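hiii so um. not sure if this is the right channel but i have a protein structure encoded as tokens and i wanna go backwards to a sequence. like what aa goes where. can anyone help
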């Protein structure tokens, strides 16, 4: 049984599931709040928010992250949301996590990043991923339901100036909106600035439940779109090594390599067999899969006085129960919580 196996040696053992995968990449959601209302994530009116006292404090985030690193051999931590820049204590969180022996990164929509990028870099943040679906102001407003594209671009400039590199740009292509010229324009912009663009398939985690298995923009459609417009792609030679993105080198017509892109095909070309991620929601619950319908509470036991060893054991048992694959097909039932509530 999962519990008996996990309990054999509770000290400094990794997060292994029954299929032999080891989770060493931790995503921590800092907040459910967001200042955008992207159509593939949140409804226009927003979502009900958990009360502040139900969310992890800075000290609780740091304690669970430290357990992950010291007891569970986690080697990478990415801070997510919602929008993590909405945490007033974000710089302090980064500063307390920075001494841990991990690769420390942040995923953000960059609204408000212009004033905080240097402070985050000074606190010890190493890398940054920024969501940017299009450079077209009209399409950006349509997708995010906000007119904040200029602030996003200012944030990207600030991240580059603060040397939060390499900068990765995350784009979700939505059918009939930004899945044409927008995508190529964004790619050219990223190549010119030495950013790595990653196209991410829309996932069935939108609160409006508009995701359609028959019409979402697949990885194959992305490759076809780019190649039809003369973009030359070749598989990147480095091993994928559990990364969510399949990477491609981009070449000019004369054979000159221009840069690298990634395509994250969680739905059409799933990489579940080599998934290495474990997740903490802003409410301190473990999700063994982004698409899971169950969670394991760590925050409650932590507040009730559980030891580090006990919390690590709860985490191991939660990850041991991870299924072999997410099972997304035409019969898939989406989790009740949307992407912003889970953490990207």
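sure thing!! here u go:
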């Amino acid at each position: 049984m999962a519990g008996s196996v996990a309990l054999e040696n509770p000290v400094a053992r990794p997060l292994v599931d029954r299929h032999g995968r080891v989770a060493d990449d931790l995503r921590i959601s800092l907040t459910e709040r967001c200042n955008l209302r992207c159509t593939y994530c949140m409804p226009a009116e927003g979502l009900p928010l958990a009360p502040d006292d139900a969310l992890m404090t800075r000290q609780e985030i740091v304690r669970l992250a430290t357990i992950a690193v010291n007891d569970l051999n986690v080697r990478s931590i990415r801070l997510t949301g919602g929008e993590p820049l909405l945490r007033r204590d974000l710089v302090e969180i980064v500063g307390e996590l920075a001494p841990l022996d991990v690769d420390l990164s942040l995923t953000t929509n960059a609204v408000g990043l212009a004033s905080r990028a240097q402070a985050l870099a000074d606190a010890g943040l190493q890398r940054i991923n920024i969501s940017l679906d299009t450079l077209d102001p009209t399409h950006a407003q349509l997708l995010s339901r906000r007119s904040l594209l200029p602030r996003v671009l200012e944030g990207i400039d600030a991240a580059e100036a603060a040397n939060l590199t390499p900068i990765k740009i995350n784009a979700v292509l939505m059918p009939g909106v930004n899945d044409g010229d927008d995508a190529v324009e964004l790619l050219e912009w990223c190549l010119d600035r030495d950013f790595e663009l990653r196209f991410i398939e829309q996932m069935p985690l939108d609160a409006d439940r508009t995701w359609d298995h028959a019409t979402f923009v697949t990885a194959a459609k992305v490759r076809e779109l780019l190649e039809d417009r003369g973009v030359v792609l070749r598989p990147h030679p480095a091993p994928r090594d559990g990364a969510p993105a399949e990477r491609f080198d981009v070449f000019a017509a004369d054979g000159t390599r221009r840069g690298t892109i990634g395509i994250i095909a969680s739905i059409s070309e799933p990489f579940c067999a080599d998934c290495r991620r474990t997740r903490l929601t802003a409410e301190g619950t473990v999700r063994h899969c982004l698409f899971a319908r169950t969670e394991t509470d760590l925050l409650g036991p932590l507040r009730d006085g559980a030891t580090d060893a006990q919390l690590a054991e709860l985490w191991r048992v939660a990850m041991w129960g991870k299924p072999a694959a997410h099972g997304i097909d035409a019969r898939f039932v989406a989790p009740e919580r949307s992407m912003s509530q889970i953490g990207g």
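oh and The longest strand covers residues 257-264.
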